[in-house]
Design goal:
9 helices; alpha/beta; 283 residues; elongated; six-stranded parallel β-sheet; Rossmann fold; single chain
Length: 283
């Protein structure tokens, strides 16, 4: 797998056009949830995605019952979420950077799979589930350590071997009335995963970092994102205004299709390895 010969005729033709567009360029990469579906992490918007109403930042901060509901689901899903492995798409993008073609990855995902695949310059626009932050004193905790503490304080909880995992590493809890909500071990403040909740803004410094990566590049490759989230479409618009060639790889329609020189309607795990091999061979 991972060569043009493995693709169907239409996809092969589209990849060929993308190779011609991206050849000789320094490529910024923007990724979304569609890249991680082959690692077992579902997409909020992809075909067959479970219907979810994510908790907003306002709900999380409003009262302890909301935080309890969030933390039960988040803890139950963490085992499956944290055991997900990078797939062929993640590894291909790491190889593209190693070959000196990709300038780095801007991702809307919070799963950390780009870093685990070997990508070195990764801008995690929406944060990461690896860290937990106290909203009062700013203390940062490793999610693994907090998970062990939650297990100790809630010994009655059993984590099922199979859960219906959500895109942000949560599940829909059936009950949680007895759950002890974790608080900061330093100041007893409210703990929150270091991720951007629905209803929150991306930190300005993080978006500037993403913009700088695009500015340092001469082309943009979008992989596995429908570009529905504003952060993604804003970066694509920055690239369009600078007249950078844009290539999109995604199953299904995206908000940027009419701005792309090439749109490849296929899975990222199939396309990205073939695209990377071809670009590396001619670089």
């Amino acid at each position: 797998m991972g060569t043009l010969e493995d693709l169907d005729a239409d996809t092969t033709a589209a990849v060929g056009r993308a190779i011609n567009v991206l050849a000789g360029h320094r490529v910024a990469v923007l990724t979304g949830a569609g890249l991680s579906t082959d690692s077992g992490i579902p997409d909020y918007r992809g075909k067959g995605a479970p219907v979810r109403t994510p908790m907003t930042a306002q709900q999380f901060l409003a009262d302890e019952s909301s935080r309890r509901r969030y933390w039960v689901g988040s803890h139950l899903g963490w085992r499956a979420f944290s055991s997900a492995q990078p797939n062929a798409g993640h590894r291909a993008l790491a190889d593209l950077e190693s070959a000196g073609i990709a300038t780095g990855v801007v991702t809307q995902n919070v799963d950390g799979l780009h870093l685990r695949a070997g990508s070195r310059r990764v801008v995690e626009l929406h944060g990461t589930m690896r860290r937990i932050t106290c909203l009062h004193c700013g203390q940062v905790f490793d999610r693994r350590d907090l998970g062990a503490r939650i297990d100790r304080e809630n010994p009655w909880i059993t984590v099922p071997d199979s859960v219906e995992l959500g895109p942000d590493g949560d599940v829909l809890p059936t009950t949680g009335d007895r759950f002890i909500v974790p608080t900061c071990s330093v100041c007893d403040g409210v703990l929150k995963p270091d991720v951007v909740f629905f209803g929150e803004y991306i930190p300005a410094v993080k978006f500037r970092e993403a913009e700088q990566l695009v500015t340092a590049s001469t082309a943009l490759l979008v992989a596995g994102s429908s570009l529905v989230v504003n952060s993604g479409i804003r970066l694509l618009e920055r690239a369009r205004r600078r007249r950078l060639p844009i290539v999109i790889v995604n199953r299904g329609e995206t908000r940027g299709d009419n701005r792309a020189i090439v749109k490849i309607e296929a899975g990222t795990s199939d396309v990205l390895p073939a695209l990377t091999r071809a670009l590396a061979a001619i670089s």
